[in-house]
């Protein structure tokens, strides 16, 4: 790859990193292409040439983020609740605040709603894969309830409650979620 092509790729990475960082810091309407360009250390024209619009930049940032999240969450082993919950907390410690900011804005902005819908689907698929053996042991009538329980227990809002609202250290919060998961795993039919 030529030095020029490498520089173009590096600018693209900086722009995406700036957009991702700004999602944590600012409400969506305050994130302008000018703000992203300044954070990335490039001109507005560079951002426009590379991505065309705020919507396209947000979609590209989301694609990269969802791919990264999918890869990270994909490392959770099937049927091993302690390691799966540790994987979940690794994810929330890195992405939880971004997720909460997106969820708070999903009804106001279609671009954000598209991201949160994909994230919910990814989360549900993670629960189905990781806890698949437990769900398979449930009768057909109760499987959807058990799936819903596991989705709720493993949701970012419970992480927020334990870590942000109650201020529990990660180990205690993780053990609290693991305790709920294990109680479900050993419980009878819902």
In short:
This protein has helices at residues 3-25, 33-40, 44-51, 54-74, 81-105, 110-130, 132-136, 140-153, 156-165, 170-186. The protein is mainly α and 190 residues long. Helix 1 packs across helix 4.
Q: What would the keywords be for this entry?
A:
single chain, 190 residues, mainly alpha, Arc Repressor Mutant, subunit A, Tetracycline Repressor, domain 2, 2 domains, 10 helices
Walk me through this protein's architecture.
The protein is built from 10 helices and no strands. It has 190 residues and is an all-alpha fold. It folds into 2 domains: 1-52, Homeodomain-like (Arc Repressor Mutant, subunit A, Orthogonal Bundle), CATH 1.10.10.60; 53-186, Tetracycline Repressor, domain 2, CATH 1.10.357. α2 (33-40) packs across α3 (44-51). The mean pLDDT is 92.
